[in-house]
Amino acid sequence: MLNDTLADALSAILNAEKIGKPTVEIKPTSKIIEAALEIISKKGYIGSFEKVQEIGGTKLTLNLIGKVNKCGAIKPRYAIKFEEIEKFEKRFLPAKDFGIIIISTSQGILTNDDARKKKIGGKLLAYCY
């Protein structure tokens, strides 16, 4: 039984990166997973990905480029204010300006840098570096 599909997807990416696979398939998918992967892809940690419709549902096929050191879901999904973003950066990222934290805000799913620029808080979803 799957409880957290985002955590399962990020775990599959990390495991495939560790053993050197060029691609990984993620199933089941959701809008949150797609938005998080879009951000991770734009930041250059993974390659492109495509959505494939199947009879049993939708799956994502990701191209890996070997740049993910660690990624994972943040549990519980802490609700944070704009002022607390730096505290959680220190907790989940290894160094300043290294890696990203993905935050679900009222203006969509953003990185920690974008949320800081817009001065909004939200709920923590995942981290990647």
What would your notes on this structure say?
The chain folds into two domains: 5-63, Ribosomal Protein S8, Chain: A, domain 1, CATH 3.30.1370.30; 71-128, Dna Ligase, domain 1 (2-Layer Sandwich). 33% of the residues lie in helices and 29% in strands. The protein starts with a helix and ends with a strand. Strand 6 and strand 7 (108-111) form a beta hairpin. The strands form two sheets. Strands 4, 5, 6, 7 and 8 form a five-stranded antiparallel β-sheet that branches. A three-stranded antiparallel β-sheet has the order 1-3-2. The protein is an alpha+beta fold and 129 residues long.
SSE topology sketch:
Layout: H1 5-19, E1 23-26, H2 31-42, E2 49-53, E3 58-63, E4 71-73, E5 79-80, H3 85-92, E6 100-105, E7 108-111, H4 112-118, E8 122-128
Antiparallel strand pairs: 1-3, 2-3, 4-8, 5-8, 6-7, 6-8
Features:
129 residues; 2 domains; 5-stranded antiparallel beta sheet; Ribosomal Protein S8, Chain: A, domain 1; alpha+beta; 3-stranded antiparallel beta sheet; 29% strand; single chain; Dna Ligase, domain 1
Number of helices: 4
> Which term fits the overall shape?
globular
Number of β-strand runs: 8
Secondary structure class reads: alpha+beta
**Poorly predicted segments:** none
Elements, N to C (H/E): HEHEEEEHEEHE
Q: Which class of the largest domain in CATH terms?
A: Alpha Beta
Based on the structure given, which CATH architecture of the largest domain is correct? 2-Layer Sandwich
Distance between the termini: 28 Å
Beta-strand portion reads 25-35%
State the helicity in percent bands: 25-40%
CATH topology of the largest domain: Ribosomal Protein S8, Chain: A, domain 1
Please state the average pLDDT score.
95
Write down the domain tally.
2
Tell me about the largest β-sheet.
Answer: 5 strands, antiparallel
Q: Return Rg in Å.
A: 14 Å
